[in-house]
Model the fold of this input.
Amino acid sequence: MARILTGIQSSGASGEVHLGNILGAIQPGIELSKKKENEAYFFIADLHSLTSVKDAKVREMNVRAVAAAWLAFGFDTEKNVFYRQSDVPEVCELTWYLNCFTPYPMLANAHSFKDKTENLADVNAGLFDYPVLMACDILMYDANYVPVGKDQKQHLEMTRDIASSFNHKYGETFVIPEPLIDERVMVVPGTDGRKMSKSYNNYINIFLADKQLRKSIMRIETDSTPMEDPKDPDSCNVFALYNLLGSEGQIEEMRNNYLGGNYGYGHAKQALFELIVEKYKDQRSSYNDFIDNPDQIDQLLLMGAEKARETARPILNKVRQKLGFRV
Ligand code: TRP
Done:
């Protein structure tokens, strides 16, 4: 049995999950979790969000939106372990212990910190220490594999270094985790053609009500080829998204429409809107049921936290004992 663990960011400004998150993280994560030989520990990294998000309501909304999206796409919380990071406060204790084994230069070299050194007054100690909390997220649960994006590779290397050096000093304690970095990661284009991202504000949130969803699709940037003229599907942002979501037949049909002329970008956008509404009918409705029943979300996450704590406690005790703290 392999334990797959990953943290899900929840630091967006408005509690929104977009198509890039769904195609790039949620669906591949759920696929991994379904394999018989895997057990997935997936958690919402709300403690990490405190390095930037200070508003309690915003945090709460973000956590629920992220949880509702994973649940709506069918993440199985019975087979797996789904929890809020902050519901397992043991991770903060481990973070203190491992802080005291983390060399300052290692953290000073982290890209996540180095990117911000121009304005050091804005860097809080939590942000500086972000990689150690992340290492503890992983080491706390004997995780074997950690699926992450390329940008997290360095954090995984630090985790392995911290774990190995502790094991070297105190004997086998932590499992050394392997990163699972999918080099083929799907790049989902946003409404302006750049990678879909919260920070570019070019994202499509499929859980919006029809009217707003349609509006966000109509916002996709296109060139000014007149309606009557043939169009190049391969340089069009609308087609690029349709191409990721449609069936072979649907894609072929739209390609022919583009090449044939008398087919405007407005038609293509309308077709994309209809495709999204149809394709994600069940998930959209399930998402809204969860958002309307936050207690149900909280209950599922708490059940996950109970399971997570059972795994965490003996590992934390092992560390306490090795360091001369009472167990
Ligand atoms: N830092 C990760 C990100 O930005 C989120 C994260 C927090 C994480 N803790 C983790 C990922 C532990 C994997 C394992 O995406």
